[in-house]
Write a structure and sequence with these properties.
The complex is a heterodimer of chains A (112) and B (117). With 112 residues, chain A is mostly beta strands. Chain A is built from no helices and twelve strands. The chains are: A mainly beta (112), B mainly beta (117). Chains A and B meet through strand 5, strand 6 and strand 11 of A and strand 5, strand 9 and strand 10 of B.
């Protein structure tokens, strides 16, 4: 079945460090891929998405490229801020109108 | 504010009891999804409704049930509660139904935190 695997956290970084959170997936066909972010005490918010191979999603300095050959969708940011501290979830949807399948989430903690 | 409203925000109850969680989707969205978030299981999909009809089931226990009403709001009913049911329950909505073009972007509410004592 479809599944998403994320690197385990927590990830602890200093401000302005480079961030990578790995995400790989297993799915039939051509899924859409997402990164959601959950700030403390809040619901999940869409961070970025990509709908086909080689697409790059980007938002707020975060980027992720849909790599079909490696079934990956790694999240990157060149310079993290304290305000980026949150839990990041990778997710996929195999078909429009269907529920998202989430990874277990990766906690990012950024210190000044 | 995401536009998805969930009530109550917090709920404390005892084992064996029954509770109802409520969700109003974002205006214009026809699909409602329920997820359970716990520390050990992560985000688990429970059930989806589209325009009043059940569309998909995930890891939903038989003690749990849901429905979507004509005004599109949804309720998740949890009965015979156990300690292990303590979790955050999220509702999400989307405009898409099956066969709709484009990616299925879900908008999440802030969640209802259930504590079973």
């Amino acid at each position: 079945g479809n599944s998403v695997t994320q690197m385990e956290g927590p990830v602890t970084l200093s401000e302005e460090a480079f961030l990578t959170i790995n995400c790989t997936y297993t799915a039939t066909g051509y899924p859409s891929l997402f990164w959601y972010v959950q700030y403390p005490g809040e619901g999940l918010q869409l961070l970025l998405k990509a709908t086909k191979a080689d697409d790059k999603g980007s938002n707020k300095g975060f980027e992720a490229t849909y790599r079909k050959e490696t079934t990956s969708f790694h999240l990157e940011k060149g310079s993290v801020q304290v305000s980026d501290s949150a839990v990041y979830f990778c997710a996929l949807s195999n078909q429009a109108g269907t529920a998202l399948i989430f990874g277990k989430g990766t906690t990012l903690s950024v210190s000044s | 504010d995401s536009g998805v409203t969930q009530t109550p925000k917090h709920l404390i109850t005892a084992t064996g009891q029954r509770v109802t969680l409520r969700c109003s989707p974002r205006s214009g969205d026809l699909s409602v999804y329920w997820y359970q978030q716990s520390l050990d299981q992560g985000l688990q999909f429970l059930i989806q409704y589209y325009n009043g009809e059940e569309r998909a089931k995930g890891n939903i226990l038989e003690r749990f049930s849901a429905q979507q009403f004509p005004d599109l709001h949804s309720e998740l009913n949890l009965s015979s509660l156990e300690l292990g049911d303590s979790a955050l329950y999220f509702c999400a909505s989307s405009v898409a139904g099956q066969g709709s073009p484009g990616a299925n972007v879900l908008t999440f509410g802030a969640g209802s935190r259930l504590t079973v004592l």
